[in-house]
Amino acid sequence: MPLLQNTSSFLAEIGSSLRCGLPLKWSFANLKETMPELNEKQSWLNRTVLGIGLTSLFSDWSHETATAILPAFLASIGAGPAWLGIIEGVSDGLSSFTKLASGHFTDRLKHRKPFAVLGYFVTALATASFAFATHAYQVLLGRATAWLGRGVRSPVRKALLAADVSPSAYGRAFGLERLMDTLGAIVGPLTALWLLEKTGHSYHKVFLWTLLPGLIAVAAFWFLVRERPIAAKPKRSFLTGIRDLPSPFRRFLFGVGVFGAGDFSHSMLILYASRMLAPRYGLARAASIAVVLYTVHNVFYAGSAYASGWLSDHVPQRKIVLSGGYALAGVTAILLCTGTHSLWLLGVIFVLAGLYVGTEEALEDSVAAELVPREQHGMAFGTLAAVNAVGDFLSSLLVGTLWSAISVQAAFAASTILFFAGALLILRPAASRVAGGKA
After folding, report:
1. How far apart are the C-alpha atoms of 3 and 14, rounded to whole Å?
2. What is the DSSP string of 176-209?
3. Is 94 within 8 Å of 144 (Cβ atoms)?
4. Which domains does the chain show, CATH number per domain?
5. For the segment 346-398, what is each residue's pLDDT rounded down to a tens digit?
6. In Å, how far from its chain's centre is CA 317?
């Protein structure tokens, strides 16, 4: 009945426009506002959502295959843990700042899709270039270049995704993208193990193989993702772009930053499980069990990304679901403070960690998309990525230092405080309807 009323209203508006001499296209321009129920009935799972999901799957499949064997490859060419730290640190830092710059510039472009395609292409080629490396500095150059491409494409991908779905479906759309990305992270290491066996442990051949899923990712983005053209924006300074972001979004960033300062790398979970299980199972078996637990973690991570996104689309304010995910992280940190040696309790910890990180990654993007107008999405996603990068650095420094200098309980107690503080702060931003949503 409401749809019928809106249809009648829309037809009446057309008649009125004709009587007044207004162009008919003026009425059709308002179809979206006049018939909201009709728009809500349109499927959110369109070619863009599917294309971005497949792109994330194959791109992550490519670089996670390479990442799985990277430490062993570096050891085989005489490069130790220090080189691995330098490679990952430089690459992650470069990627983070590139995301910030990319977000700023893409909001000024009328056509952004080629920018993302170029980013995926560069990442695919640079990752495969490891096949020709014989020294650690060559791996550093390749990884830094790959992560440069990753930084360029990320804000663009998210902006294109948000532009092609209704705000009421942001949770499902971003959740599906995270789900597909995580499936790539699960399949990648398994593929690396299979290829090592098939190639007689030839690291170079495995690296070269990563070019295949990497190029499939490029093709999926190019042929499936649809771009909604936007008007080119006037040039403005980077600082002006930051200052023009809505105040609710800036308050949201503060909550994300506080949470992120305690959000330790989940590779620490593997170290934690290995140490806690070693007295009972021995070092080698404990390490194997830890890897299995981490695989379970990734499975729940993938599932929760979509499930939490779906849930957020069906509650009055999606930030409540995000706050719940942050609180779940606090519960996980409390369990880590116990220093448990129980295998089943460690399993619970890994499952909870997977659940909260899936919720965190899917919902942070969804809430950001709703708090910021679409013409500022690039800047918003780039800024969010930069805040998370700073949080990653601070959390690794904080947790690692407290663990080494005091105790594991002190390290995760600090995370617990920051997790719950973030959960409370995330509820502070007032609802904003700039994107037509319910953040």
Report:
1. 17
2. HHHHHHHHHHHHHHHHHHHHHHHTTS-HHHHHHH
3. yes
4. 2-41 (no CATH), 47-235 (1.20.1250.20), 246-439 (1.20.1250.20)
5. 999 999 999 999 999 889 988 888 888 877 888 888 888 888 878 877 887 78
6. 21
